[in-house]
Specification:
By secondary structure, this protein is α+β, with helices and mostly antiparallel strands. 25% of the residues lie in helices and 32% in strands. The chain contains 5 helices and 14 strands. The strands form 3 sheets. Strands 1-2-3-4-9-8 form a 6-stranded mixed beta sheet, with helices on both faces. Strand 10 and strand 11 (216-225) form a beta hairpin. Helix 3 (82-97) packs across helix 4, helix 3 (82-97) packs across helix 5 (191-200) and helix 4 (168-189) crosses helix 5. The longest helix has 22 residues, at 168-189. It is globular, with a radius of gyration of 18 Å.
Amino acid sequence: MTVAIQGLPAFFQPIYLDSVTSTNDDVKHRARDGAPEGTLVVAGEQRAGRGRAGREWTSKPGNLYMSLLLRPQCDAPTAAQISFLAAIALSSAIAQLGPDLAPVHKWPNDVLIDGAKISGILLESSARSGGGVDWLVLGMGVNVAHHPVDAGQAATSLHAQGVSDCTPATLLAVLAPGLLHWLEVWQSGGFAPLRHAWLARAGGLDGPIRVRLPKEEFTGIFRDLDDNGSLLVEQTGGTLRTITAGEVFLPPT
């Protein structure tokens, strides 16, 4: 069954599907067929959801699973900044729905509550012939009613955090306008306002972190983001190291 979703800003062209392999795969399919920017697929469940680095994302009914088609007029490294605006919009929505909660950002695109992960954000894109991005899919999975207990890392959900009246639909109603707002901010002001908003809720800022790279793991002090969203880590002796990709671990809260 496919039904329309009502009440979102006009930018969004939403489609609800009971079940899909993954919302990102569905939207990529639509993108290749020429679907317009703003196409939004929301699913009741995903049979093969995935996160960063191909990790499986548990996708039982009761959580929010969505993918949004964007066609940004920029190169791929710049388009990657969209993950920051997605995290900002999500943490803001969570704070609105649960005023007692204190969501934090973990680089590059996680949102945590009390040190536990509540969401997954995945960007996938295709290059345009001659350069630039043809389309980009922003996929988001948010633990609303339940969360995995065997994911290899601490996880939580909105219900577990006391926001028991929240549903995927009520979260989407708050999240979608925030996504549109921050997308417009990014398009008009670049990364600078995103950097400021992201750092305002950054977990572990000016404290110790552990960074895992493909061939190396090290500890340092999380000092800042650069103008492109790369992580700036202070190492022994005060030198700043720029990290463009990797996995970050914060101390237990």
